[in-house]
Amino acid sequence: MAALVLAFELAGIFAFAVSGALMAIRKDFDVVGIVLLAGITALGGGVARDVIIGATPPVAFTNLGYFLMPVAAAAVTFFAHPAIERLATAVLVFDAAGLGLFCVTGTVKSLAYGLSPLPAAVLGVVTGVGGGVLRDVLAREIPALVRPDGELYAVPAVAGALTVALLWSHDLRGPWTAAGAAVLIFVFRLVAMARRWHAPTAWRRR
After folding, report:
1. Residue 35 in contact with residue 71, Cβ under 8 Å?
2. Using CA atoms, how far apart are residues 22 and 195, in angstroms rounded to an integer?
3. Is the separation of the CB atoms in 104 and 124 below 8 Å?
4. Direct distance between the N- and C-terminal alpha carbons of the chain, in angstroms, rounded to an integer
5. Within a domain: 203
6. Which end of the chain has fewer CB atoms at under 10 Å, N or C?
7. pLDDT tens, residue by residue, 58-71
8. What residues make up the domain containing 173?
9. Which of left, alpha, beta for 114 (phi over 0: left; psi -120 to 50: alpha)?
10. Residue 179 belongs to a domain
11. How does pLDDT run across 155-189, given as a tens digit for each residue?
C-alpha cells in the first residue's frame, strides 16, 4: 500500500505542478516564479496534511523525488506550454487530476495514522485543495474552491474522500479501490465544469 500511495502522490505532484506552472506562465512569471508556483501548488496540501497528522518532517522535505517532480513538471511545461495550452482548459484539467489523486492519498495516509473515517476524509480534502488554493492566491486569482461563479470543486473532493474512507473502514482496500475513487473525483470535476454545476449560495429575499 505504501508503494501505491507513493505512486499516486508522485502522479498528483506532477499534475498539480503542471497546473501551477501553466498559471505562472499565463501570469508572465519568470523562470524562478514558474518553478516556485509549480512546487507550492504540488506540495502545499501534502505538507499541511503531514503537519496536522504529526508525520514530521513532512515527506516533501525527506524524499528527494517530491522535490524533483515539481521541477521536472515545471521544465516540461516551460518548454512545451504552447502545445499544452492548446487544451482548452489545461490548468483545470491538470488541477482536476491532481485533486483526485491527492484526495485519495491524503485520506489513505490519514487512515494509516489512526484517524477515523470522517477526519481522514477531511484531511484528504485538505490535501487535495490546499495546493490549488495557494496557487490561486499567489497568482492573485479568486481560489476555485470559493468562487461563487465557479463549478463544483470541493463537492467532488468530499465525495471521493468519503468514498475512500468508507471503503477502507469496511476493509475494501487495494489499488483498484484507490484508483476508482481518484477517477470518480476527476470525472465528477470535469463533468461539473462541462455542465457548469454550481454550489448553491445564500438565499436572498426578492
Report:
1. yes
2. 24
3. yes
4. 54
5. no
6. C
7. 988 888 888 899 99
8. 2-195
9. left
10. yes
11. 899 999 999 999 888 888 877 888 888 899 999 98
Burial readout 37-57 (b: 16 or more C-beta within 10 A, e: otherwise)? bbbbbbbbbbbbbbebbebee
Domain count, the chain: 1
H helices within the chain, ranges in order? 2-26, 31-53, 64-84, 90-112, 117-138, 154-169, 175-195
Q: What backbone phi and psi angles, to 5 degrees, belong to 19? A: -65, -40
Residue type, 53: I
SS3 of residue 154 by DSSP: helix
**Structure confidence by residue, pLDDT tens digits, 13-46:** 888 898 899 899 989 999 999 999 999 999 999 9
Angle of helix 64-84 versus helix 2-26 axis, rounded to 10: 40
Distance CA 142, CA 133 (A): 9
More confident residue, 140 or 144: 140
Residue 205 lies in a domain: no
Please, which pLDDT band fits residue 78 given cuts at 50, 70 and 90? very high
| Residues 94, 16 contacting (CB under 8 angstroms) | yes
Q: How far apart are CA 69 and CA 64, in angstroms?
A: 9
144 pLDDT higher than 80: no
* Sole residue written with cell 500500500: 1
* C-beta pairs of 24-30 under 8 Å, 24+ apart in sequence: 24/139, 25/77, 25/78, 25/81, 26/91, 27/139, 27/140
